[in-house]
């Protein structure tokens, strides 16, 4: 093949490797069940993750019922309550958010957005999904074993997690949790390597790194981070499993249990916390960075304006990714670790606020002088900014070591992380589903139902979590299933708890509207066409919608411009697809200017 | 229009909620009013940023909403603006971090005249140990714990003779005297938390952690466990009673005689020990 001329700035290099033939399925089973097509795998991942999300939603209802109306529901005792919060937390963080952003959106969008036919290792990609499903089944199985699931809290701190005073500690619950996590990490590693290698090796001609849509940058960076962070959780899980089943003492010091001395000695509970948070903090950004990337593209597309400061956005993503590996102990300010660590981790934590703030500024500056279409994806993007800014700012309280002391382990923390890594990324997930559903199915989601879903979810979630900070400010600790007899808690706090519960039930119910919309529009939605949002990125330029196996038909696309040529002066339409040659611009695109 | 208005209401509503909310921290009873002040500073800075960002966004949504004939402005970058915003943010962050680190230095630097006390948390109750007249706490070891020696004191340590052990009862402290609380757990993680003192710290089995504070107000305050420690976690409560010096001394004398009685040969516990 020959080089392709590229405007005034150069040429698109000839491909390094020739287009290779894909694996072609021949039966219904290899096409839709044991599929090696990233798009099918993406749908499988998303379906399972959203199903787990519904289980986690029901668990949150149960715990809110207990907090709002303590004692009314006799089946929710302390035991059950701890099991609910543990399973809710672990499911949401790992099995829903991580799986959905990387396994779901990653699989669907990476090959399409970079102009590839599929992931580079399709068979491993298929295995990744089935191993993930196995991990989910092991996790869900813990509801049905003697003693039920673990109630150790999603952080699984030993020694408590593996002792008799904790639900599932000396029964099956904790074992299944640890095994499930290990299986998940094995499956994720297969997927994660795939995402990283695909982005690095399979980009279309002309798709330089600095022309990639920010969605790809976000998912790519998060996958890379996950490959570095999950092993810490993996070894922690293996060690704890040994402590639980083989009687080792990795995390177990000399201790007594219910008055009886245990035959353990020399282990360190703090070691587990370091391993857990070395995974756990990057994990926050593993969820956040894909959301950052996706929301950038939603805002740019629906405001018809180039993303502002693209290069700064890329570098900010990378800076956040790198810094997030040296902030983990801000979860441990009051853990009893050497207090001098506090100076270091408070400083790194507050430094990370700077690249994060830059991203927020650039989203808003993209709206500035835009042509804002208030579509459902755009509404979700705006709501993301509100909740993310709110949750990010309360992070400045908790990151600033001494301010964390009174607030740590209180409802303030619960409110903070739900706002910043629960509500905000989930709003992006919704926005993204409304945005890409037409590409996946060929039909639009219903707009009216979408707006109903949006307003109830956004305003409801804000009404749940904003006031919750103030419960923490009073001093109400988290992980208490009943706060009835605390002298310092005013009666009005109980009213607030009941209010939060009622709103939580309503917001939960609104998700049924969304689920209905997903199925209803599959059949009755307006036919979308190939590019309903008039977007520039490659996935909207496929010859067919939904894209078939192999994505591009006979010829792979060639990329001539960055992903954000919206409203280019002199162009005859307000967007220029990345694979459209020609047209010089008044202002050169960044990275080539 | 409606969307912009709702965004404005969310921003302003949050501020109004903050100002009229009846949910605020408990009146402070320790020297850590610096912490409260730092929180107030942080509230002001972050609140101002939140309102500014959301209002600006609402303005954009209103001003640049789609209308026939509108075309967005094409401007990939503006280096000057981006650097200015970065610098201003950096300064704002430093303005919060600096006082935070300053107060943290105080938080972890125990004054020389602080009295050592021990706070012992186990599933699911609080116990306490005071040093007695010699001012020294005896060494201890989890492996020495027995029904007769619930805190695992090292009886060979001469300092153990006058240590005052308060098992499952109230901790009494004299007002306006700094204490260094040594935190110890024989089983799982716990966290010593008194909302009115603002201070909290984990108890970690296998090591001894500490916090220090000066009670500044007499009264009875609730001790909570703030680190999940099993199903009994919410029931793990205790009380700390802050008293005037004279009342405290009277209480201490009472405890010393009780403790001493327990160690006198021929008592029930002595019999148990010889078993």
Automatic annotation (TrEMBL), chain A:
It is found in: Cell membrane; Membrane. Pathway: Energy metabolism; oxidative phosphorylation. Its EC number is 7.1.1.9. Keywords: Cell membrane, Copper, Electron transport, Heme, Iron, Membrane, Metal-binding, Respiratory chain, Translocase, Transmembrane, Transmembrane helix, Transport. InterPro entries: Cyt_c_oxase-like_su1_dom, Cyt_c_oxase-like_su1_sf, Cyt_C_Oxase_1, Cyt_c_Oxase_su1_BS, Cyt_c_oxidase_su1_bac. It is a multi-pass membrane protein. Cytochrome c oxidase is the component of the respiratory chain that catalyzes the reduction of oxygen to water. Subunits 1-3 form the functional core of the enzyme complex. CO I is the catalytic subunit of the enzyme. Electrons originating in cytochrome c are transferred via the copper A center of subunit 2 and heme A of subunit 1 to the bimetallic center formed by heme A3 and copper B. Belongs to the heme-copper respiratory oxidase family. This is Cytochrome c oxidase subunit 1. It comes from Microvirga arabica. The gene is ctaD.
């Amino acid at each position: 093949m020959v080089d392709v001329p590229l405007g005034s700035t150069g040429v698109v290099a000839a491909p390094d490797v020739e287009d290779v033939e894909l694996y072609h399925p021949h039966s219904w089973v290899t096409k839709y069940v044991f599929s090696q097509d990233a798009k099918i795998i993406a749908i499988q991942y998303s379906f399972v993750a959203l199903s787990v999300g519904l289980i986690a939603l029901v668990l949150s209802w149960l715990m809110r019922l207990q907090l709002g109306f303590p004692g009314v529901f006799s089946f929710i005792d302390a035991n059950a309550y701890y099991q609910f919060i543990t399973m809710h937390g672990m499911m949401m963080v790992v099995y829903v958010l991580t799986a959905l952003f990387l396994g779901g959106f990653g699989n669907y969008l990476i090959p399409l957005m970079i102009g590839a036919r599929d992931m580079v290792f399709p068979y491993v990609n298929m295995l990744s999904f089935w191993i993930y499903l196995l991990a989910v089944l092991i996790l869900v199985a813990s509801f049905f074993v003697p003693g039920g699931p673990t109630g150790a809290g999603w952080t699984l701190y030993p020694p408590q997690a593996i002792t008799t005073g904790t639900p599932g500690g000396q029964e099956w619950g904790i074992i299944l949790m640890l095994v499930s996590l290990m299986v998940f990490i094995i499956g994720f590693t297969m997927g994660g390597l795939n995402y990283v290698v695909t982005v690095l090796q399979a980009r279309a001609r002309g798709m330089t790194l600095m022309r990639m849509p920010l969605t790809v940058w976000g998912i790519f960076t998060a996958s890379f981070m996950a490959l570095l962070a999950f092993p810490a959780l993996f070894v922690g899980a293996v060690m704890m499993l040994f402590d639980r089943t083989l009687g080792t003492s990795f995390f177990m010091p000399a201790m007594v249990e219910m008055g009886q001395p245990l035959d353990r000695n020399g282990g360190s509970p703090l070691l587990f916390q370091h391993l857990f948070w070395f995974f756990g903090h990057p994990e926050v950004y593993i969820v956040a960075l894909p959301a950052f990337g996706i929301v950038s593209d939603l805002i740019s597309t629906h405001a018809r304006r180039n993303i502002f400061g693209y290069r700064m956005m890329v570098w900010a993503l990378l800076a956040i990714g790198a810094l997030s590996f040296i902030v983990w102990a801000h979860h441990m300010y009051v853990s009893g670790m050497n207090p001098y660590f506090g100076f270091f981790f408070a400083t790194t934590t507050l430094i990370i606020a700077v690249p994060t703030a830059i991203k927020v500024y650039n989203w808003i500056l993209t709206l500035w002088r835009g042509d804002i279409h208030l579509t459902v994806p755009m509404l979700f993007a705006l709501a993301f900014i509100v909740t993310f800014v709110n949750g990010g700012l309360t992070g400045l309280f908790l990151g600033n070591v001494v301010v964390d002391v009174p607030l740590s382990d209180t409802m303030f923390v619960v409110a903070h992380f739900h706002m910043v890594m629960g509500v905000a990324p989930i709003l992006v997930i919704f926005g993204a589903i409304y945005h890409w559903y037409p590409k996946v199915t060929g039909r639009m989601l219903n707009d009216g139902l979408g707006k109903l879903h949006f307003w109830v979810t956004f305003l409801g979630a804000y009404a749940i979590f904003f006031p919750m900070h103030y419960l923490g400010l009073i001093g109400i600790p988290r992980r208490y299933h009943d706060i009835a007899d605390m002298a310092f808690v005013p009666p009005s706090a109980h009213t607030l708890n009941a209010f939060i519960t009622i709103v939580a039930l309503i917001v939960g119910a609104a998700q049924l509207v969304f689920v209905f919309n997903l199925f209803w529009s599959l059949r009755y939605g307006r036919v979308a066409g190939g590019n309903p949002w008039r977007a520039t990125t490659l996935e909207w330029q496929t010859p067919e919608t939904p894209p078939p196996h192999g994505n591009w038909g006979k010829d792979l696309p060639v990329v001539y411009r960055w992903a954000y040529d919206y409203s280019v002066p002199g162009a005859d339409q307000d967007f220029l697809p990345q694979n459209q040659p020609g047209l010089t611009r008044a202002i050169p695109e960044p990275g080539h200017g | 229009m409606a969307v912009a208005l709702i965004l404005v209401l969310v921003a302003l509503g949050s501020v109004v909620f903050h100002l009229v909310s009846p949910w605020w921290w408990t009146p402070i009873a320790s020297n850590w009013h610096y912490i409260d002040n730092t929180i107030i500073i942080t509230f002001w800075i972050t609140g101002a940023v939140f309102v500014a960002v959301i209002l600006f966004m609402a303005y954009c949504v209103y001003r640049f909403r789609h209308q026939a004939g509108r075309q967005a402005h094409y401007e990939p970058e503006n280096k000057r603006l981006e650097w200015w915003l970065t610098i201003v943010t950096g300064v704002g962050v430093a303005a919060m971090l600096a006082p935070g680190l300053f107060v943290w230095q105080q938080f972890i630097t125990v004054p020389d005249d602080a009295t050592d006390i021990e706070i012992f948390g186990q599933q699911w109750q609080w116990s306490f140990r005071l040093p007695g007249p010699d001012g020294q706490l005896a060494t201890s070891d989890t492996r020495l714990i027995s029904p007769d020696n619930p805190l695992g004191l090292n009886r060979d340590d001469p300092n153990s003779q006058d240590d005052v052990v308060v098992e499952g009862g109230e901790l009494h402290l004299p007002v306006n005297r700094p204490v260094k609380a040594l935190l110890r757990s024989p089983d799982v993680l716990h966290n010593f938390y008194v909302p009115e003192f603002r201070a909290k710290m984990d108890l970690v089995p296998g090591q001894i952690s500490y916090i220090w504070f000066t009670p500044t107000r007499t009264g009875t305050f609730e001790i909570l466990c703030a680190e999940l420690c099993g199903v009994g976690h919410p029931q793990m409560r205790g009380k700390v009673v802050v008293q005037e010096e004279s009342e405290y001394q009277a209480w201490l004398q009472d405890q010393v005689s009780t403790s001493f009685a327990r160690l006198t040969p021929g008592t029930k516990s002595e019999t148990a020990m010889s078993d």
